[in-house]
Design brief:
Alpha-Beta Plaits; 5-stranded mixed β-sheet
Length: about 110
């Protein structure tokens, strides 16, 4: 199962995300994993490349992606993280046995 946790700072601001796991399909052909990965990479690349921000922490490994925003960048990225959350929640409704979203206080 893919688990997506949205990180919320103590002040309630969106602070990033942590996505772990696999949807369970065959590697290279699993559309759920591909959809989640593509969306997560789009957000990470937008933050670092298009917006030129430097996250406090960014890690991308097989089955584990973490993006933790610097405190001063949280408001700038709020809508971007909200879009990712909405996308992943849609996947969770379509594939409830493959995707779980938590920390949705954005």
């Amino acid at each position: 199962m893919v688990q997506a946790e949205f990180l919320i700072a103590e002040d309630g601001a969106a602070a990033g995300f942590h996505i772990t796991g696999h949807a369970g399909g065959e590697a290279g052909t699993d559309i759920v994993c591909a959809a989640v990965s593509s969306a997560a990479y789009l957000v990470a690349n937008t933050v670092t490349g298009a917006m030129g921000l430097r996250p406090r922490e960014l890690r991308a490994e097989d089955g584990d992606m973490l993006l933790r925003l610097a405190e001063g960048d949280r408001q700038k990225c709020r809508e971007l993280l909200l879009g990712l959350r909405l996308h992943l929640e849609g996947l969770m409704r379509q594939y409830p046995d493959s995707v779980r979203v938590t920390g949705t206080g954005i």
